[in-house]
Amino acid sequence: MPYALIPEGFKLEKVTRAQADAVSSKRRHDDVVALLNNTNTPLVIGGLVTAFFGARLAGDIISDLEDKVGGLSDDVKEGIVETVAKAEKELITDPQSWVATQLTGLISLGAKIKRKAEEVDVKPGALA
């Protein structure tokens, strides 16, 4: 018979196989709850996801540019990878600031598009 540290009173006792499985299941459940309650969990998961997609994004940008422009120098490729890595770091360390920066960029892009449409006299809804 195995021994297990029983949560009630925390004493070491001889237990049956079913009791040992129950104690293991309870500990696993407690570990998952502790992980989900940890305030750093979203940052860690976000960091891992960002790192994965960031590396793929840099590779996709490089291959798309090479398809359209031709060969790229190693310096340009390195610059793209560094820029994506910098954006990843900003997203992981300060997600609120990163989102605000992206929204500001989108708003200014929208304003530029609106000004350009006014320059060429495009009526709202004409492109729909």
Percent helix among the residues? over 70%
Taking all Cα atoms into account, the compactness measure Rg is 27 Å
> Which structural class best describes the helix and strand composition?
mainly alpha
Strand content: 5-15%
Distance between the termini: 74 Å
Globally, the shape reads elongated
Describe it for me?
It is a single chain. By secondary structure, the chain is mostly helical. The chain folds into 2 domains: 3-37, no CATH class; 41-117, no CATH class. It is 74% helix and 6% strand. The chain has 4 helices and 2 strands. It has helices at residues 17-37, 41-69, 74-93, 95-119; strands at residues 3-6, 11-14. Strands 1-2 form a two-stranded antiparallel sheet. A hairpin with a 4-residue loop joins strand 1 and strand 2. Helix 2 runs antiparallel to helix 3. The longest helix has 29 residues, at 41-69. The termini are far apart. The model has no long low-confidence stretch (mean pLDDT 76).
Protein traits:
single chain, 128 residues, 2 domains, two-stranded antiparallel ribbon, 2 strands, 6% strand
